[in-house]
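Journal club side-thread
Mid-discussion, someone asked how the predicted structure for our own chain would compare to the paper's figures. Pasting it here so we can look after the session.
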Amino acid sequence: MRTRRATEGDIDAIAEVLRRSFAEFERLYTRDGYAATTPDAPRLRERWPEGPVWVALDGQRIVGTIAAAVRGSGVYIRSMAVHPEARGHGAARGLMRQLELFAISQSAPRLYLSSTPFLHDAIRLYVSLGFVRTGEPPHELRGTPLVTMEKKLERAR
């Protein structure tokens, strides 16, 4: 498994990874919450200028993705997903590492994300990487419950 910075040519594959990664949880989301979690290629193209995106590859096949949005309070992690068939092989950790290195290069004070409380494996991963729940908003995404987590970053010396 390796990671690289995504290009606009990867957008269709990224949309497919998002759709396949969250399909098993669709029934736990509201319809609008699921649509926001699994943006299609046109929506991803609209968001492209908002921050860098990375992909995880198994050979030449894109099997994971993560995106960053730099905000005043840190770097927001969004669209973290790994195809179900590729889970357990280090893709998520590799993607999170790329994003953390980016955040450090931006001198961001923290990484933060929102997740649904029913994504137990994802939350376990985030906790293992040093994230803690904050209790801060948002508390829902179009009717689907959310928890916010953060990881404080050491300033580069």
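Post-session note: The domain at 2-152 is CATH 3.40.630.30 (Aminopeptidase).
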